[in-house]
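In response to the reviewer comment on reproducibility (Comment 2.3), we provide here a single inverse folding case reported in full, input and output, so that an independent group could reproduce the run without further information from us. The structure tokens appear first.
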């Protein structure tokens, strides 16, 4: 039984020290203003809530643009449709389409 006494003594002492109530006016950091929020804190909280609402709104707009599936079958079908729109010469089927001219490069240094 002498082996248990030296082991339990530090545990009992620690428990007694931790169970004591703070004295001498020290409330463990919980003074008269403990738990009160300032108007600035409330304003920051409101700004965070507004930012979260705007982010959720933006995310839902972006998610609506995402296709339902990313299967390669749909991509192959889209390429086949594009190929069908072109004629034999490889030009677009739309006759009004004109090639875009690139601006000429000048040699200014």
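Designed residues, in position order:
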């Amino acid at each position: 039984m002498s082996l248990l006494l030296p082991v339990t003594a530090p545990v009992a002492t620690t428990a007694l020290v931790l169970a004591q109530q703070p004295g001498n006016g020290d409330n463990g950091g919980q003074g008269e203003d403990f738990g009160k929020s300032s108007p600035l804190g409330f304003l920051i909280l409101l700004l965070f809530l507004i930012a979260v609402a705007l982010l959720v709104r933006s995310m839902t707009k972006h998610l609506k643009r995402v296709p339902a599936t990313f299967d390669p079958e749909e991509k192959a079908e889209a390429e086949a449709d594009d190929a069908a729109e072109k004629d034999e010469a490889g030009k677009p089927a739309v006759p009004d389409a004109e090639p875009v001219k690139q601006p000429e490069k000048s040699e200014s240094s």
